[in-house]
Amino acid sequence: MSGIIISPSILSADFANLENDIKKVEKAGADWLHIDVMDGHFVPNITIGVPVVNSIKKITTLPLDVHLMIENPEKYIEPFVKAGADILTFHYEAVENVEHIVKLIKSYGVKAGMSIKPDTPAEEILKYLPVLDLLLVMTVEPGFGGQKFMEKCAEKISVIKQAAQENLIIQVDGGINAQTARICTHYGANSLVAGNYIYKSTDVELAIKSLRD
Fold first, then answer.
1. Which of 31, 36, 39, 65 does the annotation list as catalytic?
2. Which terminus of the chain has a lower count of CB atoms within 10 Å, N or C?
């Protein structure tokens, strides 16, 4: 894989003007669109569900990178795939049988991703890397945007990179800006999720470019 995949998080977008904000990052060079789904149980926040993903799919050509921060993700895989998800990422801490969830996601023909919280050691999940398309390292506690980057969490990336197959997408989410992006890509990340840094920027195109360069 060459280049860094930039996936702006719509958690920081203006939901009253969501189509406009999605078109803005699409035009500015984003590769994917990151959609955080929160249930108020697995994480202490509630965001969007299947109907919104379905609506987003109709107004963008960007692949939808859907991050399920929810309990019982297996119940929602089919609905989110039907709504238009191209990548579905579940949390390691939310499931009992990782292989079963991955197999279920892949059975619908979409990419299967798994995310780990800051307290989960990289060593604990290395055995699952061969079956995954994407591994998401959280560098903040999942639930809210705008948190401070935790570099200690980013150090897991190098451990994952050393053990991973060549085509694994190693994604990072949490406090990503031009400076922290350098740290993550140095460790071996090849996909960056950024919300506030992109959407609060006065120049969205320049913000995306600064993450990729």
1. 36
2. C
For the entire predicted model, the pTM comes to: 0.95
For the domain spanning 5-212, the CATH number is 3.20.20.70
Strands 5-8 and 64-69: unpaired
Do 198 and 207 touch, CB atoms closer than 8 A? yes
Q: Which two tokens stand for residue 70?
A: 């929810």
- The answer to whether residues 47 and 17 touch, using CB atoms and an 8 Å cutoff, is no
Would residue 213 show up in a list of annotated catalytic residues for this protein? no
Are 95 and 73 in contact by the 8 Å Cβ rule? The answer is yes
Whether 173 is catalytic is yes
Q: DSSP assignment, residue 148?
A: P
pLDDT digits (tens, 9 = 90+) for 6-46: 999 999 999 999 999 999 999 999 999 999 999 888 887 88
Catalytic residue chosen out of the listed positions 21, 31, 133, 173: 173
Domain ranges of the chain: 5-212
pLDDT in tens, 155-170: 999 999 999 999 999 9
